Amino acid sequence: MKLTTNAPKPQVRALLIAVLGGLAMASAHTAVLNDRNDASDAGGPVRLTTSRAQGDNSNAGNRSRQYSALKERSTRRYKPGEFELYVNRLLGWEPAPAPMQSQEPEDKELLIHRLGAELMNETSDEFNADESSLPGSESSRQIPPEYQIGVGDELQVSIWGSVDADLRLTVDRGGRIVIPRVGPILVAGIRYADLNSVISSRVGQVFRNFQVSASLGRLRGIRVYVTGFTPRPGAYTVSSLSTLVSALMKAGGPSAAGSFRQIELRRANKTVSQFDMYDLLLKGNKSADIPLQAEDVVHIGPVGAQVAILGSVNKSVIAELKPNETITDVLAMAGGFNPVADRSRVTLERLNERNDRRVVELGMPAESSLRLSNGDVLRVFSSVNTTLPQHKQFKRVRIEGEVARPGEYVLPPSSGVSDVIRAAGGLTPQAYVFGTEFTRESVRVSQQENYERALRDLETEFTRSGSTQKALTADEATAQATRASGSIRLIERLRAVKPTGRIVLQLDAAATSLPDLAIEEGDRLLIPARPNTVGVFGSVFNGGSYLLKDGSSVDDIVRLAGGPTRGADTGSIFVLRANGSVVSARQSRGGWISFDTALSTLPALPGDTVFVPEELNKTTFVQEAKEWTQILYQFGLGAAALKTIKN
C-alpha cells in the first residue's frame, strides 16, 4: 500500500513563508523594545515623548494664514481733513493735477500733517500679517512675570535628570497641558513667574531627581474691537501681549475726523482707561497704554479743536486742543522756538474773524497765556530773515594792504572808516591812499541789477536794429549777418563781466587820509602800496607799463608806447585813475570839430592806466567816394524827374 500526501501549491507555500517571516520579525522587534524599556527602568533616564502631528498641523495652518496675509498689500492712503488742506495751501501747497483715465491717481505729499499722523497711518504689510511671524512684534517681547497663562498658549517644557523630555504643549480648552506618564496639569490662570513651580510640583509626584524649565512659545491670539473714527473699524485678532496702542496701529489709528486725545478702552461695558496719544508722543508717558484682554473695545472719539503753528518752530504741526489750552501749550507741541525764531512776537489768524481784521500780532511772553480757538493759525517769525537797521548793527569789515594788522574786525554800529584803520593799527609809510579800493556788498547788488537791466536794453536795441534793416544786395546781407554775430558775442562777453561794488572815493592825488564814511556789514578796504608805473594799452605800438617821471603828462606816456597806431581813435583815449575815476579826451573837446584832447596837459599819476581804443566803422576813400557817387546819382535822377513833371 502506497501512502501519498497532498503537498501545498507553490503560491500558497510562498504566502505562508512571508507570513511566518513577518511574525518572526515583529516578535524580535517587540523583544528589543521591551529590552530597551527594561534597561531604561533599570538605570537610564526615562524618555518622555508626545505626538507632534497636531502641533505640526497647527504650525502649517498658521504659516499658510501668514503667507496669505502677507500677499495682501495694503493700499490705503492717508486722507487729510479740510483744515489740513487749508493750512497746507497757506504754505503754498497745491494738490496734484487730475490724472488721465489710464493713470493711477497721484498722491502729492503734504507739507504739514496732524501731530501723530505719520506714526498711525503708515502703509505697511505688518498691519495685515500675523504678529507672531514678524520681528519686533508683540510676540518677540520678553514675557512679563505677571502674564497669565491662557487657552491657546504654547508652552516649551524641558525636563532633565532622571527624566529626559523636550516638549511643546498647547493649553487646551480646559486650561490644561498633558505630560506623558505624568498626566494633565492645570496651568490656565497662573502667573508666568509661577509656571516652573507648578509643573515641577506635578512632575515630582511621579519622578525624583529632575529639573524643569518651562517657557512660552507661540502666544495665543485674542479678539478685540476698534470702533469710532478710524479708517478700518472692526474686529482684530492680536497677540495676548498687545496693548491699546497696538490695536490702534493695527486699525490705522484715528482718521481725519478722529481724535488722538479722546481714546477709551472699554471692558465689560466699563471704561477702564482714558488714553491721550499726545502723552506718549510728546512726553513718552505710556502709563495709560494697558494690556488688552479678549473682547476689549478700543473706541476713538471725534476730533477736537485744531490749530496750526507754522514758521520758526522746531516742527510745524497741526495740533488738537483740549479745553483751556493756551499758546504756551501749542508751542510745546511744536517743540518750542527754534534757534533763529523771533521770540518777542507771534501772529494769530482766527477763522472766525475772517470778515474783519482776521490777523493780529501778539507780544510774547506777555500774551502767551491766551486761549486758542478751533481753526486758529499761529505764525512764528525768523529773526535772521529781516535786517536790523544800520544804527543797531555791529559791523564786520575786512581791511587789507598797507596797514599794520590786516584782517577782519567787528566794530560797533556807529563806526566809520577811520575807526577801521585805527583798529588795524594805522597806515604804513608805503600806503597809497589815493588808490584805496573801497567795496560794499549792498552797492555790488545794486550795480548788478542796473548792469543786467542795461544789458537787456542793449540786447533789445540790437535785435530791433537788426530786424528793421533791409539788405538790397548779397554783400549787405553778409555784412548784416556779421554785425548780428558780433553783437551776440559782445553781449556774451559783457554778461561775463561782474560788478565789484567799488565806491569811487573823491580824493586828491596827495591825500594822506580817507574820508570818514560810515561803514556797513561786509565792507572791504584795500589800501595798496604806492606804485611807480603807468600802464598803456590798446591801439599803440608797444603796450605795457612804464616808469613814471615827475611832470610827465598822459601824452608823454602814450609816446613812450610808440604813440597811437593808424587805426587808433585818438579822440576817445581815456585814463583810468587808481581811485577808480575816469578821465576822457572827449571831456575837454568843444564844438563839432576839435583837435585838442587835453591829454597833453593832463598829468599822469601813479597807478594810471591809459587806454587807446580802436576806431570803429572805418571806411576807405574808395568806399566813401562810391557812397557819395551813389548819392549824387540818385540826386540827379530826382532833379530830372522834377524837371519832367514841371514841363
Q: Which features would summarize this protein structure in a list?
A:
647 residues; alpha+beta; 5-stranded mixed sheet; 13 helices; 26 strands
List the helices and strands and how they pair.
Elements: H1 10-42, E1 46-48, H2 53-71, H3 82-90, H4 117-120, E2 154-161, E3 163-170, E4 176-179, E5 183-186, H5 195-203, E6 210-216, E7 221-228, E8 234-239, H6 244-250, E9 258-267, E10 270-275, H7 277-283, E11 297-302, E12 306-311, E13 317-320, H8 327-333, E14 341-349, E15 359-363, E16 377-382, E17 395-401, E18 407-411, H9 417-423, E19 437-439, H10 441-468, H11 474-495, E20 502-503, E21 524-527, E22 533-538, E23 544-547, H12 554-560, E24 574-576, E25 582-584, E26 609-612, H13 621-646
Parallel strand pairs: 1-3, 7-11, 12-16, 17-21, 22-26
Antiparallel strand pairs: 2-3, 2-6, 4-5, 7-8, 9-10, 9-11, 12-13, 14-15, 14-16, 17-18, 19-20, 19-21, 22-23, 24-25, 24-26
Helix pairs in contact: 10-11
